[in-house]
Amino acid sequence: MTGASGVGKDTIRREAVPGLGDLYYSVSATTRAQRPGETDGVQYRFLEVDAFRALIDEGGLLEWAEYVGDFYGTPLEPVEEALAAGRDVLLELELAGARQVKQRLPEAIMVFIAPPSLDELERRLRGRGTDDDAKIAKRLARAREEIRAVREFDYVIVNDDLDRAVRDFEAVVRAERVRANRLLDDQVEDFLREGPDEHDA
């Protein structure tokens, strides 16, 4: 899941994930300052810059990117463990990180969350009250870059109505789960196996 800062990715994810069954949400690591109300390990894993750079050097990140002066990245080990256990994994990423994941995992499904307009996005950013004018300007400039890349994604969900956006996101996940190319060989064999003979009952 990718989209501009302030577009509502967190809200859509929080609303959708409980209804999607066995889905692992990967908590990103970041060097940005912890905001009031945030808990380390819940919204993000908050790291000092040196600790983040050490993870990069150790190959411990699936992807990472710098965004308006802060680093963000996905710890690799928990994602590998979830995938090995057969679970779906949800990553909430910036554009550069999403591109890295798609390069490493071509089967990854890319979902872009778009704002109804840049004016509405600016209103939401200002309404959060967490950034000064300079940082908001940087976020809007990055949003323009991200929107221009929208054709790289498999799905686009416009968050002009939260309930509809949540339903659309849930529909994407459910549809992807039942795609024929995701069937394992033993599942195909199960379909071919003859059922019990009714006359033997």
CATH class: Alpha Beta
Shape designation: globular
Number of helices: 8
Strand content: 15-25%
Outline the biggest β-sheet: 4 strands, mixed
Which oligomeric form is depicted? single chain
Strand numbers in spatial order across the main sheet: 4-3-6-5
What share of the residues lie within helices?
Answer: 40-55%
Rg calculated over all Cα atoms:
20 Å
**The CATH topology:** Rossmann fold
Structural class by SSE content:
alpha/beta
Give the tally of β-strands. Answer: 9
Second CATH tier, the architecture: 3-Layer(aba) Sandwich
Low-confidence stretches: none
Task: List the domain count as a whole number.
Answer: 1
Distance between the termini: 50 Å
Mean pLDDT: 90
Task: Name the CATH superfamily assignment.
Answer: P-loop containing nucleotide triphosphate hydrolases
Q: Sketch the topology as an H/E string, one letter per element.
A: EHEEEHEEHEHEHHEHH
Structural write-up:
This protein has 201 residues and is α/β, with parallel strands linked by helices. It has a single domain (2-182), classed as 3-Layer(aba) Sandwich (Rossmann fold), CATH 3.40.50.300. Helices cover 44% and strands 16% of the residues. A four-stranded mixed sheet has the order 4-3-6-5. It has a three-stranded parallel sheet with strand order 1-8-9, sandwiched between helices. Strand 5 (61-67) and strand 6 form a beta hairpin. Helix 1 (9-16) crosses helix 7 (162-177) and helix 5 runs antiparallel to helix 6. The N and C termini lie far apart (50 Å). The relative contact order is 0.17. The mean pLDDT is 90.
